[in-house]
Amino acid sequence: MSALPPGSPAFLAGQIAFIAAPTDLATAARVRLIGSYGECPPAQAKVVVALGGDGFMLETIHQALALNVPVYGMNRGSVGFLMNAFSEADLPGRLSRAQATVLHPLRMHAITATGSVEEALAFNEVSLLRQLRQAAKIRISVDGRVRLEELSCDGVLISTPAGSTAYNLSAHGPIVPLSANLLPLTPISAFRPRRWRGALLPSTADVLFEVLEADKRPTAAVADFTEVRNVVSVAVSEDRTVSVTVLFDPDQGLSERIIAEQFTV
Fold this sequence. Notes:
It contains 5 helices and 17 strands. By secondary structure, it is of the alpha+beta class. The strands form 3 sheets. It has a 6-stranded antiparallel beta sheet with strand order 6-5-16-13-8-9, with no helix packed on it. Strands 12-11-10-7-14-15 form a 6-stranded antiparallel beta sheet, with no helix packed on it. Helix 1 links the parallel strand 1 and strand 2. The protein is elongated and about 60 Å long.
């Protein structure tokens, strides 16, 4: 189903907001696209077109929450897993045919050693990472029940299905289809228990990470690109009251990309 109103692509004339990563390749593309299709402020646009790589697309998705408009990415970066192929031709037509994927983020609720409380959203993952040379020690509870008394590690993360092909995959976590309603919980360089490879949790799970020996083993929490240092506890759960719509070319939707990634050799 298209995420944009039906009818001729002409309805998008002058209603596309182009934003670009701060690179020569992306900014030059933005100038050319504005010359072809006009310029519209994001707050007045029907759709936001992001030009850059996956990191910039992730930033744009966060910005789009306040705008309540769909985001269509075109790759002017490196990997481009979240991006469509770049082309300047028939952009309104591509947008009118695009397939929509609705993403829900994780909400991180972090408490620091000073008692301050920080909240942030993550469309990829929430990760806890050691700040110094010593391994972090973390207790993990799920839905109020301690599941792992002590994990000695470089860190641990919980990801969304959309983010399961990112840091989670690099940490040897499982790729999860969008429709699975599962959240991968994955250790990062686990030392003890050495054989623990993580878990798949229902998307309704409430996860609590408690940092043990926090003075000796300071730990940071990161929700996408928001970092909170010296945390003592971090609660994470999916927030289905928050959503953003991401657009993909037909037959190149995010669900298909996640499945295809599992057969990449």
